[in-house]
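debug: dumping io for the single-chain case to check the tokenizer round-trip. Nothing else runs in this session.
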Amino acid sequence: MAQKINISPPAARGLIKLSIKDELGPFKPYNQIDFEDLKKTFENSLKRRLIKLEVQECESILDYIIDELTLNQSLITIGGV
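debug: decoded output
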């Protein structure tokens, strides 16, 4: 995502972390977040943040992120064990 919206990787991680906190609340530990939580976060909170930042091609960026999430969901499942 960082390359697609031309920001640093730490800034992109920060956007994602803030979006997770917006969507799931401040008390859900990261190790308890599953695929559906992340997908919902990207579709809702992250999308709103990107729109507010006036990111060009927001929908295609979100499609790319969700595709990557779907392709790598087995890693999320393994990490949650």
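debug: round-trip ok. The chain has one domain: 2-79.
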